[in-house]
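Section: Multi-chain targets

For targets with more than one molecule, the full set of components is provided together so that the structure can be written out for the assembly as a whole rather than chain by chain. Components appear in the order listed by the source. The example entry contains two components.
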Amino acid sequence: MPIAAEEKLKGEFYRLFQGETGISAASDAEFEYTGQYDFAKIWSYQVPVNMELIILPEHRASVYIEDDEGTSAEWADNEWVRIAVWNPDLTTMQVIHEGRYLETKETADVEKMGFYNKVSEPVRIKAGGWIYVYGKCPFTIYTIDVSDSFFMLEMLRVRPSMFEAK
Amino acid sequence: MKDLTGYLFLLLAVVLAHLLINKQKTTNVDSTPVNPTPGPMSINPFDEWYNANVAPTHGAYSTVS
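Its structure, encoded as tokens over all components, is:
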């Protein structure tokens, strides 16, 4: 008897953190303000083979960033954060969140965390696709202290079941 | 002549038996094709999973490709 596809794939709620295998972080020096309208990459994550991600409108995002100027301190509320998904060959991008740092800086209380503000319908990120987290400092020249910064992104993770023959 | 008639009867019997056996084989063949034409359910596994689990509450997805 053939096995229905929904039994071969399993979907699970998942929180992606900056420590996940496959996350690449910019070095402190790589993140530099290069112009008022530029976003600079802080983290990137490539979806592994045999996995797909779905971001739903009710999912939340949290990004905490410290600057690296003199004594490290949390970013000011009016800096900017962008979260975007890319296709595998990095030629097409869809922004799923873009707003002031204030909107994503809650890291402790899930109920206060912000939603992706540009997700009104489910967004599928296929195997090999990318998630990028960017930052922008419109008013001040900053580098960031990447090792003291972190993020959490909610999503659905869809994988083949371990218990079904491929 | 008598020998020849016997031979012809024997040949006719063999041919008739052969025809009957072939007809029986044809009758017993399953009408289902060996390789059925893919129908509308033959979408990829992800879409099948998505349609069963997420689409009912969230509708269609968008993706970058």
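The interface with chain A takes residues 45-46, 48-50, 52-54, 58-65 of chain B (CB under 8 Å).
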